[in-house]
Amino acid sequence: MLGNFSYCNPTKLYFGENSLENLSAELKKYGKNVVLVYGNNSAKKNGIYDEVVEILKKNQKNIAEIPGVMPNPTVEKLYEGIEIARKHNVDLLLAVGGGSVCDYCKAVSVSVNCDEDPWQKYYIDFDEPTCETIPVGCVLTMAGTGSEMNAGSVITNHKSKLKIGHVFADEKIMPRFSVLNPKYTLTLPHYQMVAGIYDIFNHICEQYFSGDDDNTSDYISEGLMKSLITSSRIANKDSQNYEARSNIMWTATWALNTLVAKGKSTDWMVHMLGQAVGAYTDATHGMTLAAVSIPYYKFIMPYGLEKFKRFAVNVWNVNPGGKTDEETALEGLKAMENWMKELGLVMNITDLGASEDMIEGIADSTLILEGGYKTLNHEEIAKILKECL
Known about the structure:
The protein is of the alpha/beta class. It is built from 15 helices and eight strands.
């Protein structure tokens, strides 16, 4: 492995069918005032909300609520949550939901005591918090983002046509604890389940497709991808298969808790492209990633051919015998594409609501990052997006 790095992940995880039983012990570590944050009523419909509220009341917590956090949390919703948290003199933000709810709580966490505009400070200037932050806990109900064990937070500004993620540098922004009960994910609609599965897979790809050294992180990534492919196929046929769903949930956490990024430069351009599409269409995050992935990877493949060949052989079991490296690599991407279609993922941005007249605007909204095998320019981004239509 090349380079130098440090690694610290302070999030305590409770995993399994009885994991919520540990919430009381965690609540005792924080003050009386808890803000309960959740989405659009699914937590109430499936009973998780009632379970959590009962535990909060047993621990004599004063409860305020921020309901209605949308799948792509908006800057307006962030401002609303900041005011609620301030009025409640919040001691703990407790997310009950998927990655968007957890992302949102982190954004509120760094903003409650901030005197500046959080959108400008954290998502335009990418500054780090200089104020006191609020602890976050998470009861996860959807596997995909890995937000339960990282310091990332994505917020959408529809007026600016921007969807931006900030991975905060300080590990104190990570949830202090997360409760992961795979049973909570079993009520998800199929569309959301497979979108989450692809989000997981692409998180691994973004870290894997960078660097050319013999890196332990790549071996871990290949194992995670193979596990996810196997479990996804089982869950796609039987969404109530607990073992498959538990493996998917656990893989999601390890895909983006920063472990497999160690020693890597990382390439997050699929996310930049997908988030720009999402800013224009408000489409489900995992589906925006799926819709742009294959054209992007075909475009950069010649610049990282050795890794794409390895991906084909080690992840998709492509036999390289009698084939050029390019033929092997393309066969791997074809196997990946076939798997994506098998799951029922959206494979073009047109089906997500994008149109050709949006291409230049989406390209303008795409943040250009370095770290992958090719640093794109505006014209190349527009070309890839056209291939995604």
